[in-house]
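[scheduler] slot 2 assigned
[scheduler] job type: sequence-to-structure, two independent chains
[scheduler] chain ordering preserved from manifest
[runner] begin chain α
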Amino acid sequence: MDKIKKEIVIIGSGTAGLAAYRAALQYTDDVLKIEGGPYGTTCARVGCMPSKLLIAAAEAAHCVEKAPGFGVHPGSKTVINGREVMDRVKRERDRFVGFVLESVDNIPEKHKLRGYARFIDDHTLCVDEQLLIKADRIVIATGSRPVWPKMFDQLGERLVINDDIFEWDDLPSSVAVFGPGVIGLELGQALHRLGVEILMFGRSGTVGPISDPEIQTYAHDTFAEEFYLDSRGEIMEVKRTETGVRITYRDKHGETQEREVDYVLAATGRKANVDNLGLENTSLERDSTGVPVFDPNTMQCRPGHIFIAGDANDDIPLLHEAADQGKIAGDNAGRYPEVQPGLRRAPIAVVFSDPQIAIVGPGWKKLMEKYSQCDCLAVGEVSFEDQGRSRVMLRNKGLLHVYGEEGSEHFLGAEMIGPAAEHIAHLLAWALQNRMTIPQMLDMPFYHPVIEEGVRTALRDLNEKLEQADHTTAGCVHSNAVG
């Protein structure tokens, strides 16, 4: 077996791996990037970009459907050509993947190796049982993969994940979506608006990443008005048939129902790709799921010469987070042993449903846990149902909660469902990262008439509650950290 020595080895060539590679190069040219799967990031191939292409097509169809509300009647029947829809999705998807492949092609061959790596010990990797690599520092950036309940294994090709949908040549007539999280909600609603009959089931009662109970209830009721959604579904049987999948379930009224669908879409979560890396051969400290324990500010594991970034660390599976983490990991691998914290931005998450969902900061649940002892968390609210610009555009479904700290009057984050949530979330994330107070945020300009005026209404509500609060709670201020 051949043997080589490298200063820095990066396992994985997704968003985190590429960012780590670029950062490590600032310190040394002795960097090797190993990839066993296809090049092209999860986002470009099967994630955020192709899903947004499908959503864009769904939004176009929905606009036609909503046009009569404005007195505009486009025709007697809207025709959705599934083949044309999927053709554009795949063409544009391939274009985005092409940009990533082009960047990979520009990486010198001496820095790239195809194959699957696993640890032999803390410093040694074996690639495809053919090559041993001794590495001074290692970055794990192996991404994640979809997982689903074992009862779905017998469905064969009738079981699909988001990866599979973007290979369809045409749209099916019906799909059962299991998991109303980010992926399930986005794809399920898009398919529904493109004429696919959708049944959506959850288990925990949650919709998307929302933790605020009032926002959660509003979201569930809103989506359930559009398509069948049971976030606490009771599934009795899922069985493959000659023509599809038969699902037997108890509906929201307690009645037993039986439906046959073309496909089952499993949107039931993802798993970090660390279970086949031979981590048991290392001294890495791991959590209960097998993921290495790491410092979120430096990406450093124990032992210290190993770093982990992106979906592989099972922390925040978002592209911008993977890019930031990869840069931090690569930078610290390059400067090791002089490791230092990198820039961790204010948390922000968006679900591209309609209405959109957004979370800024740690979210309601974590804030409640953090402030459970001092009771100095205040909540401001606005409904978009009567908000001016939202009503003008017939996009007036939504609820926003903003959170602030009594005593310091610092802004702590927000959860919302509503129009323009992707844009509102950015404004609020910038305010959070700059550690602004609610009065400072209210001093910012708000144009009229815009949807963002709803943010001002919520902030005014929060500010009034902060002014009325018992300021003896000022001693429990926790606003030194963004997240």
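[runner] end chain α
[runner] begin chain β
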Amino acid sequence: MIAVPAPTVVDDSPEVPDKWITIHDAAPLLVATMLAYLAQITVSMRPATVRSTETDLRILAGFLIDHDPALSGAADIDRSHIEAFKLWQHAQPGTPGRPFKESSFRRRMSILRMFFIRIVEWDWPDAPARVPILFGDVPKRDESLPKFLDDGDYAKFMRAVADEPTLFRRLGVELLARTGMRVGELCDLEADAVTIMNGEPWLRIPVGKLHNDRYVPLQPILVDLIAKYQASDGPFTPGRLLSGVEGPLNRDAVDRWIKTIARRAGITTNVHPHRLRHTFATQAINRGMTIDVIAVLLGHRSLDMTRRYAQISNQVVAAEYAAVAAKVEALYTTGDELDADAIGPKMRRVRDEVHHRLLGNGWCQRPAQLDCSYESICETCVHFTTDHTFQPVVLRQRDHATANNQTQRAELFTNLLAEIGDTE
């Protein structure tokens, strides 16, 4: 195993960032450990991840020196510190007027847990004897289905996009809506992102969230908008396909563009860049595109990520539900008789017409109007067998079927009785 350099404490070190000075004065070893950890992950993680980790570690360290002034390093942190931090953190306010977000709490606890796991694995001197943040301290992520715009709202939104007077804003939103790319990928599009392959225009989406890049085909409307933008007065940022007013395009600006266009379209749903990505995928599945193709367009590493969209747009499920729903509705009423007075008598009639089918251990009360593919399914199975022990039951089944004019069932049980040698 490769040894990871352990942190050292240097008094009055000029390398201590300003934001850490107060914490460093109270617990220099703790700060040295955390800054050494940040230096290590800088080698292998994206700058945004390192910045987020730095913030989370600093928040934990600030809490610890207030909560336990005697604490000197990470090795002193135990369960009592973490339990107190969890309660304190969960009580913190979020954005103005809102509580601290569960997703933020989950992310922070996950990052801090990884910090402890790594310094313990690296066998640093200033590491606790065991990881003080347990797996159960990180709330389980809700597996909610993607939220998307329905066909009506999406049509209104796209009409409003077409009416957007500012060219670079319209181009940015059109690219998101028509390619399904992430907003970070849009902001990072390089100036030469458009290329021609086999005579067709494609857009190269750069390495992003999942550390992969990909090509997606460009619709003619996007090719025209890109050409118009490149022939315009900008604004332009060197090396970037699309720019903001004050320099490189950023995700906050794109989010504001989309919300403004949605309000202009009269859409009350919260529309944001990722909802456009969800809508793109849902629209594609609803219109017959296969999951593996959508996974390529979206840049998913696993088809499990893409299957979430199939769960909300499965046309087979919808068709089968519609067919069964029609049969069930027929039990309640027919024609235009939808008033409450008509439903009551009809339901009473249905109950009167229920077939009280005799089964081996009870009865089936399935209404006569509904078919059942499982009726007597065991008795028709090639592995089914019976003997004289069950003769009384089989006789009752045969007689019950005959009395209720269930010809096929009566024949089935007659044959079973013949197999056990007694038809009386």
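[runner] end chain β
[qc] chain β: The chain has three domains: 18-137, 151-311, 354-419.
[scheduler] slot 2 released
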